[in-house]
Amino acid sequence: xxxxxxxxxxxxxxxxxxxxxxxxxxxxxxxxxxxxxxxxxxxxxxxxxxxxxxxxxxxxxxxxxxxxxxxxxxxxxxxxxxxxxxxxxxxxxxxxxxxxxxxxxxxxxxxxxxxxxxxxxxxxxxxxxxxxxxxxxxxxxxxxxxxxxxxxxxxxxxxxxxxxxxxxxxxxxxxxxxxxxxxxxxxxxxxxxxxxxxxxxxxxxxx
Length: 207
Hints:
The chain is built from eight helices and no strands.
């Protein structure tokens, strides 16, 4: 059995440097537009060397989104499977982690939303992440007593709607810098749904 590699290969480090540079450029794109040239220069490599790792600026951006959403998916899974945590505490932790990601990587996540309509690979990454998050949180809603059904008032549908609401709330808050308020508001909405779980059965008008 071969010896386990303890440190990243030079190529791995260079690829991460390219992605780190792209994220930094997104943060200041109004003053320094992100191009293949500026990414390569920021990563300390030539344009030709960058093309060894990525075929275009779009590929760099897609890889950057992939790196970011991988953490989001892991956060959702970790929060939903926390042993011994109440549904309420799980919701607080999950929304707080999401807020932290928007605070630290908001420009990448905004780019994921903005480029999804025109870049299918980014759309797939983002949509798959929202779906995975919703599936994880649906299990939390079931633990809170919400019926595990596929109907419009079941845990799956409620989790999907709440996750999309949370995404949009943080998207807008990241543009205004009011992420703390968005975290509190989204947490409150999730908790109200959980606390009304006994009232989850649909009501039909009579007459």
